[in-house]
Amino acid sequence: MKKLGKFVSNHPWWTLLGLLVITLFLGYFMKNIRVETRMEAGLPSHYPEVQAYNRMKELFPSRDVVFIGIESDSIYSLRTLQKIWDLSDTLESLKGVKKVLSFATASKIKGTEEGFEVIPLMEDRPSTPEDCRRVAQLVDHDVMYEGMLIGKSGHSTAILVILKDSLSQDEVLAIYKRIQKIVKPYEGPEKFYISGKPVVEAMIAEHVTGDIRKLFPISILVAMVVLFFSFRSLRGVFLPVLTVLLASTWVMGLQGLLGIPLSLETSLLPMLLVAIGTAYGIHLIHQFNEEILAGYDRKEAVYNVFIKRGNAVIIAGLTTVAGFISLVTSQIKTIRTFGLMNGIGVFIVLFISIFMVPAFLAILKKPKVKPTQSPESEILKRLGRFTTKRDKLIIAISIILMFVGAIGIPKIKSESNEIKNFPKDSPIRIADEWINREFVGTTPLNIIFEAKGKGAFKNPKNLRIVDEFEQYVKKLPYVGGAMSLTDMIKRLNQGLFADKPEYYKIPDSRELVSQEIFLYSMSGDPSDFDALVNPDYNVLNMTIFIKTSDTGELKKIVAAIDKYKEEKLKGTGIKATVTGLSRLFILMDALVVKGQIASVISAFILVLIITAIVLRSFKAGILSIIPLFVVVILNFGIMGFAGISLTHATAIVASIAIGIGIDYAVHYINRYRIFYPETRDTSVAIERSTATVGKAIIYNALSVTLGFLVLTLSVFIGIKRLGLLVAITMILSAIGALVILPAVVNILKPGFGGESHEG
Amino acid sequence: MKVRNLVIPGILFASMLFGQKASDIMWRVHHRPKWKDMHAFMTLEIISPSGQRRIRKMESWSKTNPKTDETKMLILFLEPADIKGTKFLLHEHKNREDDMWIYIPAIRKAKRIAASGKAGPFMGSDFSNYDIGGGEYEDWNYKLVREEDYNDNPCWVIEATAKNKKVVKKSGYSKMVKWVRKDNFMVVRTDCYDRSGELFKRIETNKMEKIEGIWFETEMTATKLHTKRKSVMKFEKIEVNIGIPDRMFSLSALR
After folding, report:
1. DSSP string of A178-246, one letter each residue
2. What pLDDT, in 10s, does the model give residues A735-754?
3. What pLDDT score does B1 carry?
4. Fewest CB within a 10 Å sphere: which of A214, A522, A600, A647?
5. Do B82 and A522 touch (CB under 8 A)?
6. For every residue of A276-292, which 3-state class applies, written as one string?
7. Calpha distance A591→A253 (Å, rounded)
8. What is the chain A residue with the closest CA to B90?
9. Residue from A454, A515, A516, A536 whose CB has the most chain B CBs within 10 Å, to mutate
10. Between chains, do B46 and A535 touch, taking CB under 8 Å as contact?
11. 3-state secondary structure of A354
12. What is the nearest CA distance from A561 to chain B, expressed in angstroms?
């Protein structure tokens, strides 16, 4: 500290130049930042669920489908069918689109005594009522279309835009925007709804950058207002703001340099740095002002700032870093990256504060500082007295609150479906919910069946096993439908035997199965099989459409499938793996919960170690984290009672609360340890501690609270709740430090005195 | 000296002026002389990006009516084993849809099938039905873009642009660029552009033979440029003008 202090007070210009160079260097790499919001990107690749999903994506073509739902009073009217034709035609020639499935492109198997045809529903743009009747007749009662191209109400149909594989997210977003533009002129009286996984992810990506653009200036503004009330001077406002601006540039630049994409979580970085980071500058400027007041010149004052406040600021920063770093224990990559980058970010703010603020103070004109009134306020003094007098009551209330909070914990629901991150009245959520209601569902579950030997799934025995499996799955609750190769084979067989209903079954010989498939490949589009079975016919993909995104129900479905699999597939030589988007949601949920527990525990341990070392007393360390226990339990209790689900966004709250909340307790205990040796009276020491440090804690907590409340302006429900919860926990942490902690100290009367690092 | 300096601009000028020339070249490509009949063994190999191969073997007979220029064709499938004995019969028609039948040995029945979209893949390969059929001369606007050597053979490079949306839909191509050999009017390479105008497929002629005075492609490869999946089609033991009887191509011969 002394060396640092000497360097900065002697060479302020060099210090500033150095910071400028780093800023320019890292700022340059901000251009490399890209956005990545695909769920798979956040999941650890060594999990069997993720591996199974990736394998499925390798084996079977793109499942990235943009779903355009069309609501019309009559889906077979000339007007609607013409719109479908024109839209499909335009969409098919769109860059990045692999295929379009709609009434305009679909065909139907039609069998007669002498012929077998795969005929398109529409040969050309419909122009007469007969053309429309033809479509209606062909579609009628064909199982292949129900739930896919015809909605439940009978007043809805769909255009499925299947995207090419390996598109980047920017490309997907561009395609989605094009689609929106293309669809727009067709609106009315038909209503169009656009959704699907790529759309949801693209929308998140767009709002992530939109959020930064909107929220960052607001949080800077809020910080400036808070700073102005704190200092009423220009430098008091601009130095901390400049610090966080530089720090944000560094962190974002670092992300660009390291190629770490921006995710829903890491996009919060700039706002969090503003909320957290201005505090360090505040402390340093306050100390500088005090030194000036004490009659030192600028250089001496800067040096003294390092000696007297340096450590305290660094400690406050390090505990916050520890809180974020604790998130590294999560299995979810995006949370881990968020924790790491935020840890680094706070460290950078700390670094810049310590160099830049004093360097500027050394250069800028000596300020005129008016002596402030005695910091001991009457109200706070009374608060201190109250905590010593009513200590047992406070403890009792705290314990009751913890119990109540604990009751709420089991009520917490976890939620991983990204669509729930959008407000209920947002177009994308409305579209998604309408589509899920009308059609088979946008978040499928898949079963991958594998058997030995080429052509295993041309064997009628194996096909029947899969077919029975499918019939079982279809009867499970919340299953909207299922689709596999067996449906196609049954339909082909029926077509070959003149569409007689009794032939809707798996044929008896393997040759016939092969020849039917061959027949189809000669008269229809053989790529229709691509999504159903691999070219060697030994891996089969069954798609199950789920009507709920409730993870609990999903788990039940998976469990039922697993049980059936154990019982019925034994000894058949067929292996089945349950995978698909829904399966990833379940995994994400489990990992969020697991990661939450791990990160809370490790945050407590890390913070305990740091405070124990800093305060040179394990006892003091324990004391400082006691109020945090109450805060963290209350946080989860609130989530449980208010129905705020645990998501990868809200899972971050506890770690932030611990990392920042600990500062208040540390400040308090530090102050207490100054007063206690002086008075040797616990209650008097508490009274004076509360009266002197109380204001700083309340101001600090309020500024962080306001900073996080800015996040409630986000588009995303998860982020809004994150902001709100952190704000609440900050207030609770301040109360914990000023009410619960003194009460505990008063009862336990820990006899520590010794060294303090503050003032 | 002066004359040589004028040659290249002269050719460019001529090719701009005579867009007609490209159409003439393509007319000759599409109207090469044909044999009376042909018998051959065909192999269609589909190679996945990971190198997995699927092979189909067939025996084929075809015959062209010199008066109407309509071709009849019979294909007997030999491999893979589970479709062995399956037959495909085609009667080409100039003024209406072609007739097609498939004989299914497992039920000992022939079924008439309707033409699938021409843009669709040929037997699940990377060739489309349109590629195999050779395409139609009238569908395209031709432009000579340059002249260059391809595999040491002087070629015209001709751009064929779809005349209208219907052609795009039918063929699956918005544009094709063809390398046509100057000495024998054989297409040695075709670059195919999809409906969004993106280059996605390349067809190359690996081998050609001159049989009874007529050039014929005996080996071709189609490669999907994004996925690297490719298909190779080979003709072997080609016999021509052997006097195949008409009854070979009758519906009753299918059973």
Report:
1. HHHHHHGGG-SSSEEEEE-HHHHHHHHHHHHHHHHHHHHHHHHHHHHHHHHHHH-SHHHHHHHHHHHHH
2. 999 999 999 888 887 766 54
3. 44
4. A214
5. no
6. HHHHHHHHHHHHHHHHH
7. 29
8. A522
9. A515
10. yes
11. helix
12. 32
Residue range A431-447: average pLDDT?
82
User: Across the interface, do A164 and B226 touch by the CB < 8 Å criterion?
Assistant: yes
Q: What confidence score (pLDDT) does residue A334 get?
A: 85
- What is the total count of domains within chain B? 1
Interface residues of B toward A, Cβ cutoff 8 Å, are 46, 48, 52, 54, 77, 80, 82-83, 86, 88, 100, 102, 104-107, 111-117, 120-121, 123-124, 165, 168-169, 174, 195-198, 226
CATH code for the domain in which residue B104 is found: 2.50.20.10
Residue B8's pLDDT band, with cuts at 50, 70 and 90, is low
How many Å lie between the alpha carbon of B16 and the closest alpha carbon of chain A?
A: 30
pLDDT digits 0-9 by tens, A252-306? 899 888 888 888 888 888 999 998 888 888 888 888 888 888 888 888 888 888 8
Is residue A150's pLDDT more than 50? Answer: yes
Answer yes or no: do A95 and B196 touch at CB < 8 A: yes
Residue B140 vs residues B168, B177, B193: alpha-carbon distances, Å:
10, 11, 13
Residue A759 banded pLDDT, cuts 50, 70, 90:
very low
Identify the domain containing residue B74 by its residue range. 2-254
Cβ contact B104–A119 (<8 Å): no
pLDDT band at A372 (very low <50, low <70, confident <90, very high): low
Q: Does the distance separating the beta carbons of B116 and A524 come in below 8 Å?
A: yes
Positive or negative, the Cα torsion across A76, A77, A82, A87?
negative
Are the Cβ atoms of A527 and B121 closer than 8 angstroms?
yes
Q: Is the pLDDT at A756 greater than 50, yes or no? A: no
For each of the domains in chain A, give its residue range(s) and CATH number, in order of start.
1-32+233-372 (1.20.1640.10), 60-202 (3.30.70.1430), 381-423+582-759 (1.20.1640.10), 445-579 (3.30.70)
Contact B124 A89 (CB under 8 A): no
**Residue B223 contacts by C-beta under 8 Å, 6 or more apart in sequence?**
B126, B201, B202, B203, B204, B229, B230
d(CA A93, nearest CA chain B) in Å: 4
Which chain A residue is nearest to residue B172, measuring alpha carbons? Answer: A93
| Per-residue pLDDT tens digits for B105-132 | 988 888 888 765 667 778 878 888 888 8
- Per the CB < 8 A criterion, the answer to whether A538 and A453 are in contact is yes
Q: Which of B106, B114, B124 sits opposite A512 (nearest CB)?
A: B106
Q: Which ipTM did the prediction report?
A: 0.82
Residue A176 confidence (pLDDT) above 70: yes
Distance from CA of B115 to the nearest CA of A (A): 6
Chain A residues contacting B, CB < 8 Å?
89, 92-97, 114-120, 164, 455, 458, 496, 507, 509-516, 518-519, 521-527, 535-536
pLDDT higher than threshold 60 for residue A223? yes
Listing DSSP states for chain B in one string gives -HHHHHHHHHHHHHHHHTHHHHHHHHHHHHT----SEEEEEEEEEEE-TT--EEEEEEEEEEEE-TTT--EEEEEEEEESGGGTT-EEEEE--SSSPPEEEEEETTTTEEEEEPPPPTTSBSTTSSSBHHHHHT--GGGEEEEEEEEEEETTEEEEEEEEEESSHHHHHHHS-SEEEEEEETTT--EEEEEEE-TTS-EEEEEEEEEEEEETTEEEEEEEEEEETTT--EEEEEEEEEEES----GGGGSHHHH-
Q: Tell me the pLDDT of chain A averaged across its residues.
A: 85
State the DSSP H helix or E strand holding residue A395, giving kind and residue range, or none if neither: helix A391-408
Out of B83, B111, B168, name the one closest to residue A116 (CB): B111
Calculate how close chain B gets to A712, using CA atoms only, in Å: 42
